Amino acid sequence: MTIINSFLETLADLARESGFAGFLVEGGWKNIIMILISFLFMYLAISKGFEPLLLLPISFGMLLTNLPDAGLYHPEFWDYTTVKEAGGVVNDHYINYGNILQHGGLLDILYMGVKLQIYPPLIFLGIGAMTDFGPLIANPKSFLLGAAAQGGIFFTFIGAAVLGMSAAECGSIAIIGGADGPTAIYVSSKLLSKADDIGVGTIALAAYTYMALVPIIQPPIMRALTTKKERSVVMGQLRSVSKVEKLIFPVLVTIVISLMVPSAAPLVGMLMFGNLLKESGCCDRIAKTAQNELMNIITIFLGTSVGATTRADKIITLAFGKVILLGVIAFSIGTACGVILGKIMYIISKGKINPLIGSAGVSAVPMAARVSQKVGQEEVPTNYLLMHAMGPNVAGVIGSAVAAGVLLSIVQV
Amino acid sequence: MNQQLYDLAQLLLKGTDRDLNAGTVSSVVITGIVVVFIGLILLIFFVFLYGKIFDGINNRKAEKQRKELEKKLPSTPDVSPSAKTTVPVVESGIDDEIVAVIAAAIAAMSAKSGKKMKLKSVKYAKPSRPAWANAGIIENTRPF
Hints:
The complex is a heterodimer of chains A (413) and B (144). Chain A is an all-alpha fold and 413 residues long.
C-alpha cells in the first residue's frame, strides 16, 4: 500500500511540475493561444512560403518560449535596472549579462546577440556580400527613390504617436516601413524595454510577414497611382559599370553615411564591408562564408531568439493589433512615396523613367524589384524593369539603415 | 554637426515619452526625411562625380583605341575577290547609306580581329524579342 501511495504521489508531483500543469495556472491559456499562433506562422512559412528562412525559426522560437517551465527564455532577465557605473554615471538601461550567462536558458544566451546588436549587422554583412550595387552606380538617381520610400517610416511615426504609444514604440513600429527585417530588429532591440507594451518579436513578426506580403500589398497601390502610359515606359539600357567604380562605392558610402549619421555606421559599415569583400575578387572564401555559412548561422540564432521574445503578454494585447495595423500602413505609405517620386521623375525626365521602379525603394530585396518587373510586364510583356528597379531597391537598404540611424539619434534609450 | 542639429531643434526624445505633441512629431518626420534625403543626395553627387570621371577615362581609352584602329585600317582592308563580289541582300526601305555604315563597321571589326567577315543581308529586326533572347534575359536576371 505504501509503495502504491508513494508511486501515486510521485506521479502527482510529476504532473504538478510538468508543463501541462503550467497551462492550467492563471494566464496559462494565453500560452496555448501563442502555441497555436506559432503553428499558424509555421504553416505560412512552410506551406505558403512566407519568408520561410526567418519565419520558420521565429515561429519555432515562439513555440519553445511559450512551453511552460521549459526555461529556455526568461523575460525578467532582460529588464533594465539602474546602476551607478564607474565615474558616478547613472545607467538606467543596465542589463546584468553575467547573471544571464550563469542562469539563462539557451534562447537567453542566443538573444544576447540581438540585444548587444551583433546579429543584424552580421546579417547585413551577408546581404552586402550578395548584393550587386551596379544598377545603382549606373543610375545614381535611384538613390532618390530609395530615400522617398523611407517616407513610410516617418509618416507611420505620426500614426503611432496619435495612438498614444511611447517614443520607443513609435520608432520601433515606424521602422517596419523600411521593409528591412534586420534593421527593424536592430532598432527595436535598442529602443524597446519591458516597460513597453510590444516586444522585439512582435516587430520582427510584423516586419517579416509584411515583407512576404509585398507582392500582394504593393501592386494595387502602384496601379492606383500610375497611368497605363506611365506603366508602359520602356527604360533604356543601363551603362556598364567598371570594377574600380564598384570598389570605390562601398568605401565611399561607408565614409559619407557614417560621418553623417554615426548611429547608422554598424549597419551601413557591415553592409558595405560585405560588398567590398564580394567586389574585391581577392577574398572569395570570406565573401562566400559571409553569403552562406555565416548568414545561415546568424539567421538561425536571430530567428529563434527573436521568436522567443513573443511571449503571450506581448502578443495577446491591443498593442499587437496596433503594430499589425500600423505595419501595413507603413508599407503602403513607403510604396506610395516611392511611386509618387517616380512619377515626378517621369515628368522631369520627359517620360524616360517608369514610375513603377519607385515602389522598389522599400528595401525588401529583391522582392520589391520583382514586383516592379511584374507590374511593368502586365502592360508591356517585353519590358524588363528588373535591373532598373534593383537600383532603388538596394538604395532602399542604405536608406532604411540611414533612417534607423536617424531614429536612434532622436529617440534616446 | 548632426547632433548639434538635433539639439538645436530640441529633438531628443526619451524612449519612455508618451503623448508626443504635434510639434515634436512633425519635427521628427521633417528631420528624418530631410536627413535621409541629404545623405542619399550626397551619395548621388559623389557617385555621379566619380561616374563622370571614369566615363571620361574610359572614353579617352576608347578614343585612343579608335585612333590606333584608324591607323591600321588602310593597310588591312579585305581585298579578296570573294569579298569584293559579295552583294548583301537589303530589305526594301533601308537606305544605301545605312548599309554602307554597317558594312564599314564590319570591315573595321574584320580588320581588328583579323577574321574575314561578310555582310550577307540587312533587314529590320522583328519588334518582339525572340524566345531564345527572352530565355537568356530570364536566365541572367534570375538571381535577382
